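Lay summary. Proteins are chains of building blocks that fold into shapes, and those shapes determine what they do. In this project we predict the shape from the chain. Here is one chain we studied, written as its sequence of building blocks.
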Amino acid sequence: MQAVQGLHHITAVASDPQANVDFYHHVLGQRLVKKTVNFDDPGTYHLYYGDEIGTPGTIMTFFPWRHMKRGRLGNGETAAVGYGIRPDSVDFWRKRLAAFNVAVGEVQTRFGAVVIPFEDPDGMRLELVTTTDPATIRPWHDGPIAEEHMLLGFHSVTLWLDEVDQTGQLLVDQLGYERVGQEGARTRYRGASDDVGLFVDLLHRPGEPSGRFGAGSIHHIAFRTVDDGEQQEYLAALRAAGQQVTPVQDRQYFHSIYFRSPGGVLFEIATDAPGFLYDEPLDELGTNLKLPVWYEQHRPRIEAALPVFELKEGEAGGVA
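And here is the predicted shape, written in a compact code that computers can read:
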């Protein structure tokens, strides 16, 4: 069984879909690669952002539940998502975020990298982290950001936990991660690859309050498996280790299993295939409302209930 290669996607909750699209698609320059619905709640969208084709390790997804109150960050959650950037892009991104009135926190240094913290419109914590590691992504040349400054997919996630030992042991023993460093209360684990989405940081916060789920909260993080066969091996191995793992769920663009980590964070293991070109050609990705076959008969009712939003196209290849 191959060790987990890193992060596949991250799913969070938003409130207003227009504000969400404006921020991730236009400000951050991530392509909206799929517009579908929450398969468990077709009254809301499920929006997927990533590189040109939604390569695993670049995929940020949202359920924009309108009128949902903002969550409160706390233990038992994924607290921050880091995107990789090149060291030469630090000034570009500080200026770009300022140009869009995005408040930037105090710039930090973490494990030798520069970290630029900021928040999305719902208060979800994001970070830009400098890296010189390889990044096998598909640049979106029709987007608003020139290739040399594009986001390089995910760099890391930070989990806030009351306990860290059991979650760290799960990452190492069950998912094949390697413990690669510690700075204060932060311990870093690395996936078995040299590409994007490699790092999971556990931040030890004993006795701190738990989070409250809402807009701006991260629902779950997903790890990569190559195919269905490898996912079945993980399903069997995790259950044998005592994890309460769901049956395989068909998410149309990948297959998924879910379980909760000892620290309370919801984990998913997702397959790379079939991907987002499964039901749309490359030049139409994200432009059509795609529904699973079991919802097609309800399309008129679903479309009538969903809010309308627009893609505001930016300056292709431009800079702030």
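What the prediction tells us: The chain has a mean pLDDT of 95.
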